[in-house]
Automatic annotation (TrEMBL):
SUPFAM superfamilies: Homeodomain-like, Tetracyclin repressor-like, C-terminal domain. Gene3D superfamilies: Homeodomain-like, Tetracycline Repressor, domain 2. The keyword Membrane does not apply. It comes from Actinomadura rubrobrunea. Residues 11-71 form the HTH tetR-type domain. This is TetR family transcriptional regulator. Keywords: DNA-binding, Transcription, Transcription regulation.
Length: 202
């Protein structure tokens, strides 16, 4: 007589489920993504979602962290690894042109678009993403300011204005990607934006 092991049922793949949730939020935005849509995409039932990730808000936070680890790293690496701010920001924009149009995931940037349209109930989420965007802009400003201190840019360079311009370029490129722009289209935008770079001459 064969005795079957009763045991516990095999757990779902948490990492794969999180990736599917990320795609749902990325494609539709935070507010428009329902729990039922998430569970359908993740292949689990609501009790499993709540047990593994908490509520929708907590799940979204986990997806944002995953996004930042993978896609947000493009900006961090460019700003940290290049020898000048000009090269760092030029690389950042080119890398984003590729990432925003990568067919393996939804177009654009989750941090820029996930709460582009939201109601009062999503205000806290929107503010958190806004804080992330502002942190990126500050990182750009810090990189430019370092070149001013090093004498690579004029002392009167408008550091904050230049950082805001490139942050706006990033946001515009994300929107363009969602509207169907190709990588070549976004690279042309990046090239044109870099023409705004101040001359090293004082």
């Amino acid at each position: 007589m064969t005795v079957r092991s009763r045991g516990r049922p095999r757990a779902f793949d948490r990492d794969a489920a999180l990736e599917k949730a990320l795609v749902e939020f990325w494609r539709h935005g935070y507010e428009a993504t329902s729990v039922s849509a998430l569970t359908a995409a993740m292949g689990i039932r609501p009790p499993s979602l709540y047990a593994a990730f908490g509520d929708k808000r907590t799940l979204f936070g986990a997806c944002v962290r995953r996004y930042q680890e993978r896609h947000g790293a493009l900006v961090r690496r460019a700003l940290a690894e290049e020898p000048t701010a000009e090269r760092a920001i030029g690389r950042m924009l080119r890398d984003l042109a590729a990432d925003y149009t990568d067919p393996s995931h939804p177009p654009g940037c989750l941090i820029i678009t996930a709460t582009a349209s939201h109601g009062p109930e999503s205000a806290e989420v929107a503010e958190e993403l806004r804080a992330m965007r502002l942190a990126t802009r500050r990182s750009i400003a810090d990189r430019i300011a370092a070149d001013v201190r090093a004498g690579l840019l004029p002392a009167d360079t408008d550091v904050d204005g230049l950082a805001a311009f490139f942050a706006a370029t990033m946001q515009g490129m994300s929107r363009q990607a969602q509207d169907g722009a190709t990588r070549d289209d976004l690279e042309r935008i990046a090239d044109l934006a870099m023409r705004a770079w101040p001359s090293a001459e004082s």
